[in-house]
Amino acid sequence: MKLAVYGKGGIGKSTTSCNISIALAKRGKKVLQIGCDPKHDSTFTLTGFLIPTIIDTLQAKDYHYEDVWPEDVIYQGYSGVDCVEAGGPPAGAGCGGYVVGETVKLLKELNAFYEYDIILFDVLGDVVCGGFAAPLNYSDYCIIVTDNGFDGLFAANRIAASVREKARTHPLRLAGLIGNRTAKRDLIDKYVEACPMPVLEVLPLIEEIRLSRVKGKTLFEMADKVGGPSIRLGSNLSEVSSGPCPLDKASQKGIDGSSNKTRGKAEAKQDEMTAIQYICDFYLNIADQLLTEPEGVIPRELSDRELFSLLSDQLFSQNTNSTKKAISSSFAEQNSLGSNNGVKQSSLVNSHEDFFLV
Ligand code: ADP
Ligand code: MG
Questions:
Q1: pLDDT digits (tens, 9 = 90+) for 210-254
Q2: List 41, 72, 117, 126, catalytic entry
Q3: Is 319 contained in some domain?
Q4: Which helix (H) or strand (E) holds 28?
Q5: 10 annotated ligand binder
Q6: Is residue 79 part of a domain?
Q7: Predicted confidence band at 278 (pLDDT cuts at 50, 70, 90)?
Q8: Which range marks the domain in which residue 90 is found?
Q9: Does 223 fall in a domain?
Q10: Cα 300 to Cα 195: distance, rounded to the nearest angstrom
């Protein structure tokens, strides 16, 4: 199975990719993750360092494919996940699609392309030009990572359009959206209502994930280090999420145990382990959904105008509610001084509508 993970820059694609790759490996699959972002840090938390890119290696060998060995470009990461970084075209010149094409060509020459149960492409998606859409040519499923904000969903909609386009000539489906770094999902829900697609998971902003990047480790490695090899591989999210969220529990108590000096170290460690394992279960749940080879969808993206209108209506109703509250409390305050703010409110409404709907 070939997967392509897309999303706006900085949204959490590589974090999500690395943790899904490990989750799939924990389910017994042989996994290769290919970083297709010129930033070439996709596999950093899997290997703990920036591995040499395919393009740099090919350049060093003067594009003599026969002189490149698998160990020059394929590095084993945590939990047996193999890692490749495609690298980027020279800035301001060349094409990301060419780089992906060269990467796949080399992996085929090395007899590595068909050796894996799962190949996961981690690709940026701010602009899905022909080049950056290239990994979709090789993929069975696209997965989109987004937050609950306008830019992330705007990128998601462009990626959905690319999937629809590619699906005309390739057996490609959109497996769904993963919400990341967001406690809220109202805009995501509004979007999928208008452009139907599954939502595989929604993950909040989690300090341990930010820390895992700094430490150059995935969450699974952190869980294994904290809790030993006994991570609950069998548990699924519905079982876990039926109780109180361990993240809440851990953060209430202070995940590093420092907020309550009277608590024993063992108890703090237990909380930390439970919280990290809880997040790992999110990724295991996504892996399990993918392993069922879901039907997915061929999306029908919204026009830019529809998307602007949809998201601004939602944002606006939230803002209006809070503005209304602010205005009514200000009105009550001002009223006692003999002033009226009703006019102010309607001018706010008009300027907002003009901005989005002209
Ligand atoms: P991308 O690959 O989309 O550019 P990254 O995966 O590199 O994004 O993530 C960007 C930053 O956001 C990293 O520092 C990462 O640790 C952090 N991050 C990603 N997801 C989360 C999350 N759910 N909670 C907290 N930090 C996150
Ligand atoms: Mg990345």
A1: 988 899 999 999 888 776 444 333 333 333 333 445 555 544 444
A2: 126
A3: no
A4: none
A5: yes
A6: yes
A7: confident
A8: 2-230+271-307
A9: yes
A10: 6
